Request: fold
Amino acid sequence: MNLRAEILTACKSSGRPPDSVKLLAVSKAQNMNAIKAAYSEGQLEFGESYLQEAKDKITQLPNANWHYIGAIQSKKTKEIANKFSWVHSIDSEKVARRLSEQRENAKEDLKILIQVNISRDKRKRGVMPEEISKLARKINSLPRLCMAGLMAIPSLSETDLQSELSFRELKQIGDQLRSNYGFEECRHLSMGMSADFVSAIREGATWIRIGSKIFGMRIKEKA
Ligand SMILES: *Cc1c(COP(=O)(O)O)cnc(C)c1O
Reply:
């Protein structure tokens, strides 16, 4: 069964409309010809984790929508602010503030997802669940940014049940942000990768980030 069919089946069995889940093709460390082939078959949303590598791809496919999903160094925020339409990996006010200052006025607001350290793993990036509402309110107040939702990567060591519970918790945090603060746009949940997207869909994912299941093994994995 191909990926699109698997996504459809997961939507159906979860009682979710198929257009409520979007596929982000994670193209980091993948071959440009394969990325272009996916694009010509109608895949328009691509995720990248490393700015240097992404820049060349963005130049070659300027009409695709590019999502930044990796760690962000402060000195690179200007390019990230303007070459991408979504950033899934915000975990500090400092970086949010720089993106807000550096996003060009003519562009539509940069969609921001806060990366949540949902497994509360000290070695992992992301904001602890209890710190999210403070950062979300800050982002919501900054010009040129749209507080669009939350992202999480459960720890690899977690069991299927643990990651399912993590996805469920992420959804609850998002629901609370909307009901407590009225953040209308804050309805996206970026969760689920090649190995666990079915349970992420069941738990409410709106973006699933899939790399190897679309493109195969990555050519080179950077540190
Ligand atoms: C690489 C990466 C993915 C894709 O992982 P696969 O297991 O290849 O689907 C998804 N999300 C993030 C943040 C990544 O860095």
In short: Strands lie at 22-26, 45-48, 65-68, 86-90, 110-116, 145-152, 188-190, 207-210. The chain has a mean pLDDT of 95.
